[in-house]
Amino acid sequence: MQLVIQDLNGLSAAAEAVLSFAGDHRIIIFDGEMGAGKTTLIKAICAVSGVTDIVSSPTFSIVNEYESPKGPIYHFDFYRIKDIREAYDIGYEEYFYSGNICLIEWPERVEELLPEIYIHVQLVADSPDQRTLTCSLAGNI
Protein backbone atom coordinates (compact mmCIF):
# COMPACT_ATOMS: atom_id res chain seq x y z
CA MET A 1 0.00 0.00 0.00
CA GLN A 2 1.26 3.46 -0.82
CA LEU A 3 -0.31 6.84 -0.16
CA VAL A 4 0.68 10.46 -0.18
CA ILE A 5 -0.02 12.59 2.87
CA GLN A 6 -0.44 16.14 1.57
CA ASP A 7 -0.44 17.87 4.98
CA LEU A 8 -1.25 17.34 8.65
CA ASN A 9 -4.97 17.14 7.80
CA GLY A 10 -4.30 13.82 6.08
CA LEU A 11 -2.75 12.16 9.13
CA SER A 12 -5.91 10.60 10.56
CA ALA A 13 -6.76 8.93 7.25
CA ALA A 14 -3.16 7.73 6.92
CA ALA A 15 -3.22 6.33 10.47
CA GLU A 16 -6.45 4.48 9.77
CA ALA A 17 -4.98 3.12 6.52
CA VAL A 18 -1.91 1.79 8.37
CA LEU A 19 -4.07 0.06 11.00
CA SER A 20 -6.37 -1.35 8.34
CA PHE A 21 -3.39 -2.67 6.36
CA ALA A 22 -1.87 -4.18 9.53
CA GLY A 23 -5.05 -6.13 10.29
CA ASP A 24 -4.17 -8.70 12.96
CA HIS A 25 -0.42 -7.98 12.81
CA ARG A 26 0.60 -6.24 16.03
CA ILE A 27 4.21 -5.27 15.31
CA ILE A 28 4.57 -2.15 13.16
CA ILE A 29 8.01 -0.73 12.45
CA PHE A 30 8.58 2.80 11.17
CA ASP A 31 11.44 3.62 8.86
CA GLY A 32 12.43 7.08 7.71
CA GLU A 33 15.01 9.80 8.12
CA MET A 34 15.05 11.99 11.21
CA GLY A 35 12.19 14.47 10.76
CA ALA A 36 10.26 12.32 8.27
CA GLY A 37 7.26 12.23 10.60
CA LYS A 38 7.48 8.84 12.31
CA THR A 39 6.48 10.12 15.75
CA THR A 40 3.80 12.36 14.27
CA LEU A 41 2.26 9.39 12.44
CA ILE A 42 2.45 7.29 15.61
CA LYS A 43 0.59 10.05 17.49
CA ALA A 44 -2.13 9.89 14.83
CA ILE A 45 -2.29 6.07 15.04
CA CYS A 46 -2.73 6.32 18.80
CA ALA A 47 -5.40 9.00 18.41
CA VAL A 48 -7.49 6.93 15.97
CA SER A 49 -7.01 3.94 18.32
CA GLY A 50 -8.70 5.87 21.13
CA VAL A 51 -5.61 6.76 23.18
CA THR A 52 -6.29 9.81 25.31
CA ASP A 53 -2.84 9.92 26.96
CA ILE A 54 -0.27 12.41 25.73
CA VAL A 55 1.78 10.58 23.11
CA SER A 56 5.44 11.53 22.94
CA SER A 57 8.64 9.97 21.73
CA PRO A 58 10.14 7.60 24.30
CA THR A 59 13.65 8.59 23.22
CA PHE A 60 15.14 8.42 26.71
CA SER A 61 12.87 5.79 28.28
CA ILE A 62 12.98 3.53 25.16
CA VAL A 63 9.30 2.51 25.58
CA ASN A 64 6.07 4.31 26.45
CA GLU A 65 2.80 2.57 27.19
CA TYR A 66 -0.54 4.11 26.21
CA GLU A 67 -3.98 2.81 27.15
CA SER A 68 -6.51 2.30 24.38
CA PRO A 69 -10.01 0.77 24.44
CA LYS A 70 -8.51 -2.39 22.89
CA GLY A 71 -5.61 -2.67 25.34
CA PRO A 72 -2.13 -1.24 25.76
CA ILE A 73 -0.17 0.20 22.85
CA TYR A 74 3.60 0.15 23.21
CA HIS A 75 5.70 2.84 21.52
CA PHE A 76 9.43 2.17 21.19
CA ASP A 77 12.22 4.50 20.14
CA PHE A 78 15.52 2.66 19.82
CA TYR A 79 17.45 5.65 18.45
CA ARG A 80 19.62 6.14 21.54
CA ILE A 81 20.41 2.55 22.46
CA LYS A 82 24.10 1.89 22.39
CA ASP A 83 23.96 -1.88 22.74
CA ILE A 84 21.37 -4.54 21.95
CA ARG A 85 21.52 -5.58 25.63
CA GLU A 86 19.50 -2.45 26.46
CA ALA A 87 16.55 -3.99 24.58
CA TYR A 88 17.00 -7.19 26.60
CA ASP A 89 17.16 -5.13 29.81
CA ILE A 90 13.73 -3.57 29.20
CA GLY A 91 12.27 -7.02 28.52
CA TYR A 92 11.49 -6.46 24.85
CA GLU A 93 10.08 -10.03 24.54
CA GLU A 94 7.26 -9.28 26.96
CA TYR A 95 6.20 -6.37 24.77
CA PHE A 96 6.82 -7.81 21.29
CA TYR A 97 5.05 -11.10 22.07
CA SER A 98 2.26 -9.67 24.27
CA GLY A 99 -0.31 -9.63 21.48
CA ASN A 100 -0.63 -5.86 21.88
CA ILE A 101 0.24 -3.25 19.27
CA CYS A 102 3.94 -2.34 19.25
CA LEU A 103 4.95 0.77 17.28
CA ILE A 104 8.73 0.77 16.77
CA GLU A 105 10.92 3.68 15.70
CA TRP A 106 14.54 3.05 14.62
CA PRO A 107 13.97 -0.72 14.29
CA GLU A 108 17.27 -1.24 12.48
CA ARG A 109 18.98 -0.92 15.88
CA VAL A 110 17.23 -4.09 17.09
CA GLU A 111 16.67 -5.83 13.76
CA GLU A 112 17.74 -9.26 15.02
CA LEU A 113 15.12 -9.07 17.80
CA LEU A 114 12.12 -8.31 15.60
CA PRO A 115 9.46 -11.00 15.36
CA GLU A 116 9.36 -13.18 12.28
CA ILE A 117 6.61 -11.17 10.55
CA TYR A 118 5.78 -7.48 10.98
CA ILE A 119 4.38 -4.48 9.16
CA HIS A 120 6.96 -2.13 7.66
CA VAL A 121 5.99 1.53 7.28
CA GLN A 122 8.35 3.65 5.21
CA LEU A 123 7.98 7.44 5.40
CA VAL A 124 9.68 9.71 2.89
CA ALA A 125 9.62 13.50 3.18
CA ASP A 126 8.81 14.74 -0.32
CA SER A 127 8.62 18.38 0.80
CA PRO A 128 8.24 20.24 4.10
CA ASP A 129 4.52 19.34 4.19
CA GLN A 130 4.13 16.24 2.00
CA ARG A 131 5.07 12.65 2.89
CA THR A 132 4.88 9.41 0.95
CA LEU A 133 3.92 6.47 3.12
CA THR A 134 4.46 2.88 2.02
CA CYS A 135 3.21 -0.12 4.04
CA SER A 136 4.27 -3.69 3.43
CA LEU A 137 4.27 -7.05 5.14
CA ALA A 138 7.89 -7.83 6.00
CA GLY A 139 10.16 -10.28 7.75
CA ASN A 140 10.37 -14.02 7.10
CA ILE A 141 7.15 -14.30 5.16
Automatic annotation (TrEMBL):
Membership in a protein family: Belongs to the TsaE family.
GO cellular component: cytoplasm
Keyword Magnesium among UniProt keywords: yes
SUPFAM superfamilies: P-loop containing nucleoside triphosphate hydrolases
Key words, A-Z: ATP-binding, Cytoplasm, Magnesium, Metal-binding, Nucleotide-binding, tRNA processing
Subcellular location per the Swiss-Prot or TrEMBL entry: Cytoplasm
Principal location class: cytoplasm
InterPro entries, per the entry: P-loop_NTPase, T6A_TsaE
Extent of the signal sequence: none
GO biological process: tRNA threonylcarbamoyladenosine modification
Stated name of the protein: tRNA threonylcarbamoyladenosine biosynthesis protein TsaE
NCBIfam families, alphabetized: T6A_YjeE (TIGR00150)
Single GO molecular function: metal ion binding
